[in-house]
From TrEMBL:
Keywords tagged on the record: Cell membrane, Membrane, Transmembrane, Transmembrane helix, Transport
Regions annotated as coiled coil: none
Bilayer disposition of the protein: Multi-pass membrane protein
PANTHER family noted in UniProt: ABC TRANSPORTER PERMEASE PROTEIN MJ0876-RELATED, FERRIC ENTEROBACTIN TRANSPORT SYSTEM PERMEASE PROTEIN
Name of the protein in question: Iron ABC transporter permease
Keyword Zinc: no
Record has Transmembrane helix as a keyword: yes
Transmembrane segments: 52-76, 88-106, 112-133, 145-165, 185-205, 235-262, 274-293, 305-322
Length: 329
């Protein structure tokens, strides 16, 4: 990587730290840092137990979704690939909905990880179906999007049936998942999400060079010494795990995995040694800003953060489609 790329990544990290510090002070209750330092213990308790874990959870989930999108775009070699469009997020959401509505019994130790395990199995099942279909047909992008539409429709219908069968508490929980929300942030959920994300990010970072070689094509990568199928399986598992962790905690938050990696490739180039950490940083910044706006725009009420990310991401997606269509035309 060039010195300019290193400086860009360090600048993103500095911006993330400043925004993180600022975001902890905004919300329905203003918590200025000087007031926290010299104020009473109640304000410090609110800041530490409510505001700080939510901000850190936004960073974790935003980075996870952006990195999952980065991996998907690298595997399919297409900037329109995204965990939400092919139905991976919907598969994870359906699995979590099954866990919420149907009566399952697990040991107490596993209860905290159970929604994440269910989301992982749902996202992994959809990921494997999509990947197999994309490898067996030359027109993989069109088939990918068509299969994604079908999977999203099927999962949406299934979640609708489960919502109809659910009680009031379960229905409210499913509704929040459908729109995406970080309102349930706690230190325990942050710990679970971070314990999944950090090792997964490390694995993906170590696979940045093989992922670069995969951009040349499977055959060329094989001749350059890459175990193509093994690398693809590892990256698929990591992407599914990141989506599962995010969906299990916050619900379906769209477009971060689509917009952020594509933006980073336009800015930093195609080298995944730069795109991977850049995606984590920019994804964290984007969701942090969106969640801060969700907490402040209609205070003391709160908007679902998934609505804001969709409002920001949908125009970008349309621009990408028309831009690619103009280039091909």
């Amino acid at each position: 990587m060039t010195p300019w790329i290193y400086r860009s990544l360090w600048s993103l990290l500095a911006l993330l730290m400043l925004l993180t510090l600022a975001a902890t002070t905004f919300g329905a209750l203003k918590l200025p840092l000087d007031l926290l330092w010299h104020g009473d213990s109640v304000l410090r308790q609110i800041w530490f137990t409510i505001r700080l874990p939510r901000v850190l959870l936004a960073l974790t989930i935003g980075g996870s979704l952006a990195l999952a999108g980065c991996v998907m775009q690298g595997l399919f070699r297409n900037p329109l690939a995204d965990p939400g469009l092919p139905g991976i997020s919907s598969g994870a959401a359906l699995a979590v909905a099954l866990w919420v509505v149907l009566p399952f019994s697990l040991p107490l130790v596993l209860m905290l990880y159970a929604p994440m395990l269910a989301a992982f199995l749902g996202s992994l099942a959809v990921t494997m179906v999509i990947f197999v279909l994309s490898q067996r047909h030359e027109n993989s992008l069109s088939r990918l999007l068509l299969v994604g539409i079908a999977i999203n429709a099927l999962c949406g219908a299934a979640v609708g049936v489960l919502s109809w069968l659910s009680n009031d508490a379960q229905l409210r929980q499913l509704s929040l998942w459908g729109m995406g929300s970080l309102g349930q942030a706690q230190w325990s959920t942050l710990l679970v999400t971070a314990s999944v994300m950090l090792p997964t990010v490390t694995i993906i970072w170590r696979l940045a060079k093989p992922l670069n070689l995969l951009q040349l094509g499977d055959e060329e990568a094989h001749y350059l010494g890459v175990n193509v199928q093994q690398i693809q399986r590892r990256l698929l598992l990591c992407s599914a795990l990141l989506v599962a962790a995010a969906v299990a905690v916050s619900g379906v938050i769209g477009f971060i995995g689509l917009v952020v990696p594509h933006l980073l490739r336009m800015w930093l180039g195609a080298d995944h040694r730069a795109v991977i950490p850049g995606s984590v940083l920019v994804g964290a910044i984007l969701l942090l800003v969106a969640d801060t706006l969700a907490r402040t725009l209609v205070a003391p009420a709160e908007m679902p953060v998934g609505l804001l990310t969709s409002l920001m991401g949908a125009p970008w997606f349309l621009w990408m489609i028309f831009r690619r269509g103009g280039q091909h035309g």
